[in-house]
Amino acid sequence: MTTLKIILVGSLLLGVGTAPLYAQTAVLQASAFGSGAGVAATGAHQVRSTVGPIASPSVLGTADVLHGVGFWFAVRSTDTVLPVEWMDFAARADGEAILLTWRTASETNNAGFAVEQHQAADGTWRSVGFVEGAGTTTEPQRYRYRVADPGLGAHRFRLRQVDLDGAFAYSGEVDVTVALAEPFRVSPVYPNPVAGRAAVDVAVREEQPIRAELYDLLGRRVATVYDGPVAPNRALRMTVDGRALASGMYLLHVAGPDFAVTRRLTIVR
User: Fold this and answer.
1) Which of 141, 151, 244, 247 is the most exposed place for a label (fewest CB within 10 A)?
2) pLDDT tens digits, the chain, 269 residues: what are they?
3) Can you tell me the distance from the alpha carbon of 84 to that of 87, in angstroms, rounded to the nearest whole number?
4) Does residue 218 come out as left (phi exceeding 0), alpha (psi in the -120 to 50 range) or beta?
5) CA distance 64 to 36
6) How many other C-beta atoms can be found within 10 angstroms of the C-beta atom of residue 75?
7) What is the DSSP letter of 164?
8) What are phi and psi of 241, to 5 degrees?
9) Most distant CA pair in the chain: distance in Å?
10) Which of 76, 93, 110 is at the close of a domain?
């Protein structure tokens, strides 16, 4: 696969990369390297170089916009062999883990696949593992990768296929939801004992209102830790502030419409 850096200068696109082109027309398509990640612009533009032409170039993908005028594209000709011919890529929940599976029809100089997980908090992708490829083969290959503890809720993954020379391309993206196996879950309070703030994680399979209250050993309520709805299949961390409480043992009572759980907490000074 040929990689070019395309920079817009006035009405001219200049290609600087591993295999420049004579003036050719490449259509910037809203598609990708089999990834579904959209390109930054559409339309026909001229690509120019100092070396022989590449017939029928086509845009396979894009990355970030550089100051609004530059783009990274992967451009190939019709006679270029793709490093990996994808067959499928899928994800499914395996209990509270996630199993990723994919198949290739053929591979050329394939070093392997970096498994990347989307980070909803900031929109970035984080590598969570790597699976070695088969190098060069015309035989179909099967791969799998297990994400052991992704956490409850929705997750998104993609593969970054890496060539032996360091070039790479992305697969499509797959979504999977990890659901709570039981109707509810309340973690122990941690840290425990504690001198300041402690926490407890609460998760439910179905959305419902939850109330968490802290009591002393005389049965007096000393704090309302939480009172409100809890979304399904997502751990909610509740904070217990013990800084103003006297030393001793306390009971944290967590209740929903169909359950009630008590956790012990010790405050030390």
Assistant:
1) 244
2) 333 333 332 323 333 333 333 223 333 332 233 333 333 333 333 333 322 333 333 333 333 332 333 333 333 333 445 689 999 999 999 999 999 999 999 999 999 999 999 998 899 999 999 999 999 999 999 999 999 989 899 999 999 999 999 999 999 999 999 999 899 999 999 999 999 999 999 999 999 999 999 999 999 999 999 999 999 999 999 999 999 999 999 999 999 999 999 999 999 98
3) 9
4) alpha
5) 15
6) 23
7) T
8) -95, 105
9) 87
10) 76
Are residue 97 and residue 171 in the same domain, yes or no? yes
Residue-range definition of the domain harbouring residue 62: 2-76
Q: Are residues 245 and 202 part of one domain?
A: yes
Same domain? 215 vs 250 = yes
* pTM, two decimal places: 0.60
Amino acid at 139: E
d(CA 132, CA 112): 4
